[in-house]
Amino acid sequence: MTSSPSPETADLKRRYQWQCRRGASEVEVVLYAYLERFFDTDTPQQQAAFGRLLECEDVDMLDWFTGHGQPEDPELREFVAGMLRRVATTS
């Protein structure tokens, strides 16, 4: 049985859903996959890193998500790498 996210997490997730809307559908697919599958159970630090990721430009995220670059920030680079590994799994 899975537990419901806290009201604060649910509010944050709703806000982030709007921020996941992007001009590049390839970016949207990754962002929404993470948000729907992992956000509720991630740590506050991971949720905050996702919020920081949403502040980035679409073109940068597209490069990162397609393996053509990495974030300069080490913490964001680690989060993106982990997020991509998790989103790529099919469970």
From TrEMBL:
InterPro entries assigned: SDH, SDH_sf, SdhE_FAD_assembly_factor
Q: Name one GO cellular component term.
A: cytoplasm
Superkingdom: Bacteria
Q: Where in the cell is it found?
A: Cytoplasm
UniProt keywords, alphabetically: Chaperone, Cytoplasm
What family does the database annotate?
A: Belongs to the SdhE FAD assembly factor family.
Full protein name: FAD assembly factor SdhE
| Major localisation | cytoplasm
- Tell me, what is an example of a GO biological process annotation in this record? succinate metabolic process
Q: Which Gene3D superfamilies match?
A: Flavinator of succinate dehydrogenase
> Which lineage ranks, top first, belong to the organism behind this chain?
Bacteria, Pseudomonadati, Pseudomonadota, Gammaproteobacteria, Oceanospirillales
